[in-house]
Batch of 3 targets.
Target 1
Amino acid sequence: MMKEKKEAESFWNEVLQPKLKGYVRPFLIPLLVLFLFLFLPPLLVLAYYLQDRPAFDADSLLSMQATSFIYDKDGELITALHGEQNRIPVSIEEVPENLQKAILVAEDLRFHNHQGIDLRAILRAFFTNVQDGGFSQGASTITQQLAKNAILSPEKTIQRKIHEAFLAYQIERRYTKDEILEMYLNWIYFGHGAYGVQAAAQTYFNKDIRDINLAEAALLAGMPRRPSFYSPIHNAEAASDRRSTVLHLMIQNGLITQEEARMAASEPLPQQVHINSLQYPFPAYVDYVIEELTSRHGYTDSQVFRGGLHIYTAMDRRLQQKIEEVLSSEAFFPPNSSDQLVQAAMAVIEQESGLIRGLGGGRNYDGVRSFNRASQLKRQPGSAAKPIFVFAPAMEAGFHPNDILPDSPINFGGGYVPRNYDNTYRGHVTIRQAVAQSINVPAVYLFRHIGPTVGVDFARKTGLPMEGEEPYLSLALGGMTRGVSPLQMAGSYASMANGGIYNEPHAVTRIVDFQGREKPIVPDINRVLSEVAAYQMTDMLVTAVQSGTGTRAQMNRPVAGKTGTVELPPIAEFRNLRGNKDAWFVGYTPELTCAVWMGYDRTDRHNYLRQIYGGSYPAAMFREVLNSALQDRPVQAFARPAEVLHAAGDFIGRSASASTIPSDGASTASAENDSNSSTASTDSTASSSSSSDSYYPSSTSRYSNSSSTPPANGSTSSPTNKAPSSIDNSTSLSNEEAKKLAELWNNVPAVPDLGNDSGSPTKSSTSPPSTSKPTEPAPTTKAPTPSDFLNNTSNVEKKGTEGGLED
């Protein structure tokens, strides 16, 4: 053996090797040149294009545009939101096996055998296209298509194809085959705005992807290559042929039987698409949800429309439908002007939670980010602001509904002499009378005494926008510079309805992203008023509905509320005209709080409210909506704190009430406070309703004697400079003291001038905010209590004659 091996080596070294060198050597240089000529240019081109290759970003594959969904309070779908791409991501487990197989045979049969690039498919496509003289067959794998759709631009260039192959290789290294197929099934376009198999199933078959059959799977599998051409809606014949081709390929690869294919091919094609339009139901509510997501929760428009969010809201579907029904009914509106609709808006809140149950953005509201009057309107609230700026802070400061205030012409400085709606003055009235009959002068008088900054601070705590508002006396009558929306007014009143606890109004209750992560919703909750003060306000507002300016809002259950009317501004344009600019009604039951606004979008000589007040159409709309919302609920009473007692319908306990001063014969007819006209509307809808079906509790107890108190979630501090408000019978006034106080008040003469300390003029209560403001705001004063007057009789008389009850 060793001998033979040595002989072979000797033969190679001595005979063959020299001969081979002689034959090969002449061809080495030509072969090298040929190699360089054939392969070096492509390698250089490849290197050139790859130097600008895009960085592989795995997150871009997951950040696909996805359709978002909005649900009502019961978890029922309201609408879908999407941008230009309607996409609903699904997991690979949700996709039927027949569809997965059909996609693979139609687009990438060797998907499980390559690493992103299929050289065999490239060669096959090359020879097929040469024979056909065109580009009838492609060779892109599913991974390459994913790279093209998710990362690259759609341009058809050599550079993009090189980048596509490079990225496909990177994707294959990063993800499993199932993950790649799942991403592809969610990314690919199927026509008619549908991206991904779930949106495609809903668009063409109106069903979930999990429920499609073999025929539907074959149709979808054949569409990604040319979605428009193979659309069953636009080209039924081509779509049918393509479906048959896919079914045939499945037979060839042993995936289905001949009989299954025959039955599938015989099924009819869809005749119409089910497209999620940009229009959506309940547009005012949906628009506000979008507004809340972007302004409060930090989402961008792109994230809302393309982020695959599941947004759960507080919308009560039946209540929302009723709001839209009322806004579309002419029965709740006066005749329109020649060129504008009389508009209206409303907001309904569940005060216990702050949940927004319904919104009305206006008449003929078409959605898609329209001007939402329910949340975006900025109008002066008129007398509907009195409980917020004046009376609630006064109750918190220690005043009592039966405390007595002057009602006579008073100059508060700078020529500011507010008048009552009917130009009638009663001499003295209780706070309850001032609230119920919406009398202006006592409201301004009390506002000055509690301190305007106290009222402004309380309004801010209850959600009213006070930026840019100076503490002028005109705020007592709703004379705001920038105005408020119905939603803000409803939120503010809800704090009184909720026993003094302010819950930030919110529509969104849960947000779940497309990966199942939930974003916590944490609205602001704060105590802004004591339980007793809140109850006192509710009790007075009940009086306003029972026998004051808000009788039109009466229902067969307890209702508290306040009207508000804003006159036409005293400018040249409206000279010799009698009418109003805005009309409001804001009120609540033990369950819901509602604010209604009525007016014109553009007020001018031809477009203004004629004999329309807060107590007319707005109150009627309030009644109609809440009656419907509560029709299936038992009648409840407003819970009364244990510290408060009633006697013959009047409070005793917190501070004894002085005797009610007669109105000196002045009329107490229901009319709005800050209107030029006291004439009631003759329209049947606008007139005061009969009280035959109204709820009148017994005279000894208007509410339930519940001692339960809501939790103090937040600050319990009282407004600045308030008087002590502890509830202690030992500090209550005796009957003799109350009588003495009444006599003292009766002896206080009408005050001719309450000029402010700075001598600067104060804005008029009945006109829009003037551009020339006082140089200084009204002075802040310490809020007095009834006991202050008893303790210093001479001071009461002195201050009364000098023009104020300042300490």
Target 2
Amino acid sequence: MKALRFALRSFGREIRSGEVLVLLGAVALAVAALTAVGFLTDRIGKAVARQANEVLAADLRLRSQEPIPETWHEKAGEYGLETADTSTFPSVVFAGDLSALATIKAVSDNYPLRGNVRIADALFGEQREVETIPARGETWADGALLARVNADIGDKLTVGSLELEVTAVLTYRPDQSMGFASLAPSLLMNIDDITASGLISEGSRVRYALLVAGDEQSVNDFDAAIQPELPDAVRSSNREESSERAYRAADRAQRFLSLTAIIALLLSAVAVAMSARRFAHRRMDTVALMKSLGATQRFVISVSIVQLVMLGVLGVVIGSLVGYAAEEILTMVLADLIASDLPPVGPMPIVLACGSAMVLLVGFALPSLIQLRNTPPLRVLRHDAMPPSPSRILVAGTALAAVAALLYQSVGDAQMLLILLGGIIVIAASLYAVGRGLVAMMGRFRSGVGVAWRYGLANVARRGRDSAVQVVAFGLGLTVLLLLTIVRTDLLDGWRQTLDENAPNHFMINIQPHERDSVSDIYRSAGIQPPEYMPLVRARMTTINDVSVKEREYPDPGGEWMANREHNLSFTARLSSSNEVIAGEWWSEDYSGPPLVSVEEEAAMETGLVIGDRLRFLVAGREIEAEIASIRKVNWDSFQPNFFIVFSPGALDDMPTTYIASLRLEKEQQPVLVRLVRTHPSISVIDLDSILQQIRGIVQKASLAVQAVFIFTLAAGIAVLFAAVQSTIDERRFESAMLRALGARKRIVFSGVMAEFAALGTAAGILASAGASVLAAIVAIELFELPYEFNPWLWVTGVGAGIFVVCASGFVAARGAVNAAPVDVLRTA
């Protein structure tokens, strides 16, 4: 109790005197950075995830071959979730004497729960979003369907025994399929019209779906609760399982945001460590006086821990308020740039920031404060009496444990944690080693330079370990700032480049062999370069190395599905530009030997396939066997026609074949599609513009988030540099006072201090540039699967920033030390 009362009184005095303001500022800045980053990444991360959920038209989808039980709706209602129903099935649609096969999508009032349906008033006309569904007796039909039956808006379509009026052209629905299996164009109708149509009866091929949406936790709780009740035939899908491209973009966005949070956390940790070291040093005189008056080690450590907790609480309050205000301002600034409203702030960033502040203090400040208990009472009489240094293993162990715990809690990504933590340790060790080497070399360069440089270099050499520690602090701060700069520019640019602005935005499917020439002529007549046609052959895999695919054991659960699914095969002599052979060899263009196949990398891993394995397929009642000649890596983001399995030329020549093609059409060129679908009604045209816009929207949100977070991490980096300078400010104040008392001019003393910081900044800038380059390459290749190109300007920027930022921080922090009156400094020394 005595320790608590004393801690409260002395903490108030130290706050008023400014003794703990540096450490308090570091903690508050750490919390502000974490909460601002946490709030922003949490909200934008939820927005990104919600946008990815649009490919399901919901947050969760339950699909079944049987009607959805009413109890599922009731259970979803118990969790406060919105629901909608869909029924999907193929049917022939009639318009007068003409007919066409269509995919009928019957939907309930709330459809879609995520995303929006888009319609137009004419074929390939201007699209607009709607928040309703077709009224009873009405329908919205795909333009390709209208073209096949020669119908237009206002005409009647017969669906089963029901006549529906076409009131709009359906151009996009969030859950539309991109697979080649869904060749039939869509027709959207009201689910209340299903009974009157007479289309669904016992034995009908209908896919029923329950769509569910709400807050993330409630959706997850509902999913976990209903899973035990689901029959084996019911499939539950979330965004990870729904759209590979959209989820990959969303997942990559989350990784970018996680990386920025990690960087802010690392900078905050370094700032707290440097500030705590100075705080402990400033308290040594007070502790020595307390012990000379009878205070025990237990009393000293109790007071220190109580003050540490109070410091953490105060820092959390101040930092959380600043972080929340900064995030709100930033959200308003970005409001016009972000297409959709951001979800509300969740409580987790505040909880995480509070816990992080305490862990940071324990991991980085407590070892320095524990050292205080060993302060000798003799220090009251002899200022050079110092307590023994704490164990390096203890200091490093607590710091690493704290960082590892915080990083894993923040991002939950073990791979990113290990790479960055390992990289930071290696860079810190390299910086310290070079710093020690620099210290040893400084004495050799003092001759032949001016007085200021001679004094500055002497300071570096004389401080020895302190100079090396400062190089580590400066270098780490610069490393993470440079790394974030690379992420903000080079990596994001590389990501945008994977979504080429000139990527194909239309797919043509079900092109018959005899139609290729006439399709090309239509495009040529419109001044458009015809596309390249890729053959497509439908088949089923029957055996792998003479073992039935149904009996084979697979290394991955997805392998069984991959082997037993209906495959879309192709054959070609040339390797596509969006494919890269990573194992084996691609066949020559004039190859005419036994059938060979090339398998996509992930498909090979899931099914356990290797070079030399023999695959047998059943194609239109005929069997064909081929040997695996190569494994390919496929860039699915290219929106080019790509296949899991590709045959060598000639292997499938006499098999039933259709063709697919992709091409890019600008808005003014799209009327040519009306002529195409009217003259070739069997060809299906898939408009990818909406899907491309969806993925680019995810990229845009992630880009804005990373750029915005850069502001906060930059502030945290400056705090690190300022704390590093402040750690030796008392010594600098005394030295400056002594030199000026002996006749040195203020300008010479100040120039010497700047020369010292310039030398430290140069060393830190060189090593930070090297470290950031290596870390950026690892992050780009291993985490984001993006190409990395060396940027020589990074080194120029790194060294220049090292000199400028370190000197600027030194100027701000050390100006008071140089300007202090010598008599005042010497009197209190």
Target 3
Amino acid sequence: MREPRDEGSKPPKNSSSATSFPLILDIEDFKGDFSFDELFGNLVGELLPAYKLEDAEGDGGDSQPNGHLRAPSDASKYSSQVVASPLFPEVEKLLSLFKDSCKELLELRKQIDGRLYNLKKDVSVQDSKHRKTLSELEKGVDGLFDSFARLDSRISSVGQTAAKIGDHLQSADAQRETASQTIELIKYLMEFNSSPGDLMELSPLFSDDSRVAEAASIAQKLRSFAEEDIGRHGIPVPMGNATASRGLEVAVANLQEYCNELENRLLSRFDAASQKRELTTMAECAKILSQFNRGTSAMQHYVATRPMFIDVEVMNADTKLVLGEQGAQASPNNVARGLSSLYKEITDTVRKEAATITAVFPTPSEVMSILVQRVLEQRITALLDKLLEKPSLVNLPSVEEGGLLLYLRMLAVAYEKTRELARDLQAVGCGDLDVEGLTESLFSSHKDEYPEYEQASLRQLYKVKVEELRAESMQISDSSGSIGRAKGASVVASQQQISVTVVTEFVRWNEEAISRCNLFASQPATLANNVKAVFTCLLDQVSQYIADGLERARDGLTEAANLRERFVLGTSVTRRVAAAAASAAEAAAAAGESSFRSFMIAVQRSGSSVAIIQQYFSNSISRLLLPVDGAHTAACEEMATAMSSAEAAAYKGLQQCIETVMAEVERLLSAEQKATDYRSPDDGMAPDHRATSACTRVVAYLSRVLESAFTALEGLNKQAFLTELGNRLHKVLLNHWQKYTFNPSGGLRLKRDITEYGDFLRSFNAPSVDEKFELLGIMANVFIVAPESLSTLFEGTPSIRKDAQRVVAYLSRVLESAFTALEGLNKQAFLTELGNRLHKVLLNHWQKYTFNPSGGLRLKRDITEYGDFLRSFNAPSVDEKFELLGIMANVFIVAPESLSTLFEGTPSIRKDAQRFIQLRDDYKAAKLASKLSSLFS
């Protein structure tokens, strides 16, 4: 906005005459960063000074636009004036100002609209001109493109013509050159067309040492041309061409003679340069010699003259480094170290030669191929022939000399190290030579018969090991000569026991053999066949070793059986003889027990050995057989077949073990059982409710002797053995007890014996045996109940355990969480309290009923069932209470006249027994009430 004009100047025509503040607006005021607030302030600033004051206060407090502070007196003065003046005195001036401003703005808009119209018109004109110019330019560009296309076509045509002319010129030049060379060659050929051996008059070219390369090239071309011509016409030639043919034959002969002489001369020069290490001269000679049979003679000559192939000392040093001093037996480890050193030396030598060959020969790869082939076929083969002397399979070398195993280990070491050498030589460079195939051919004669040697070696090792073990056993047997026969036999048997360590050694041999199979076999089928053959050897060895060991252990059982039969006596013998026989029988029993343990140890170690074989098969063998169809299945079948002989020996031995145990049981029963055990005399003595001494001895013997069986046997084998033993024991006891008669107190003692046997046999986990002894316990009741009660004795026997079993099943289910949650003293206190409460509940429960003898038997069976379950509580006080309950249940079983002796010696339970007697169903009929006072007084 422009500044207001002076008073003397002429106001604009659109300004109002009523205002004294002329206003002029300019277009420049609306350019740039336009602000309406600023425009408005400039318009009203002269009329409303308070507006500027408020702006100044809002922007900078008391500061004025020029930066100076407003005086406080002025501000107060101005405020007092505002209060005194009317509310809006400048309204009229402002309205006039705004109207004039609107008119100015309208005028400005008209000016701007006019300018915009003129600009649009100018732009339209210029756009038309521009479009016209672009159209003319496009036409010109199209003309240029057409001209360029014609020019390009012309250039292409000229280029093709020039190329054809160039080809013709090049062909003509080549023909001219060929014709010139042919003329030259014919001239040289005529020189060689003289009589044989007359080479003195040849061109200087063929005698100039500085032009040897050119002479060699021309000689080769002449010879090829002459030989081709002779071959085309054939020999003999027709008469009409005899002269020409004779001439060419003479030329060929002369050329061959010259080429031979030249080649020999170059080789001599090459050798001289080689000795002086003049690589440049060697390279020149090699390049010239490459024109003679592609330089084969030079390559072979260079390789053949290397010191490693012609120096005898080098060969001897190789042998000494690998095999050691002459006469000393080399070990595989020493040979491996020697081969590593030698092969490293050879590789370094070849690497140095490779540098020379690369610098000298135009085709170094072919020379390297010849060099590496010569190294393998001459130097390595000579060493392997001395190292690997194939032994005879008919007359095996002794183990002291290393046996077949030494040969196989040497073969493996040599093969592995030679393959490493081949890989190193391949890395150095050997052209197109098949180094791997050549290396395999060095060992082909050994690998063809390798499986037979491996199996023969394993058999030899097994034979030596068995002889070693047998010698140790014989030595121990000789040292125990002063020991008694039975004791000595057991000592020898113990020394000849099956050893897991020995089986592990068999496996270690086999693992080593399998590693060699992996080394020598490259095809999966070959590897599978070799592995199967080697593993079959292991199966045969382990099967034979286990079977022999079990047979030796059986021999101890047989010897013990012979000792028992030897001391069986008749009925009429003296006391002295009987005492000696008893002592011998004790010795035979000790021998039988020792043999039993030895056989069980043998069985246990046999099982461990078989487990080792199975684990070895799973970890190492099966994966090698899987790639071949049927190989894995066949190996599994062979493994089962191989172990069948050992299983048969184990089965026979276990049968003998049972016979041994049963023989000792019968001896103990015959020696310890007395007739008075089951028929106590009526001498007023208190009856004995303990198990008989025979029963105690038998159970102690079985516990002692079967400890090894529990450890040695597993799974179904253990279950079958213990079941058979339990059935045999049942049969023996049944036959034994049939020799005696029983009174009621004897019946109770018999029942105690049966319970003792049954408790022990429960550890067998053989339900059929448990059932038989339960029935024995029931049958023993026939000696206890009154005669009139025998008819009802076995009524309902099959279900005697049903009610008690339901209670036990419930308790087992409910207490399962308690067994898991509780620990230590808390668990013990809880279970003891629970057992005592159960005893009290059952006692109160049974007092609601009356019992006949058969009911008493069912009650006794229930008490036994509860007692068996509560033993898992490990609460001795609870176990004692249920044992006393079992004793008290006898009051329902025995005859009334036997009650007087039932509780003698057990005063602590008389009170409870008195209550139980009152529950008998014949309590009133037998007038037992009158007898109670005298019975428990």
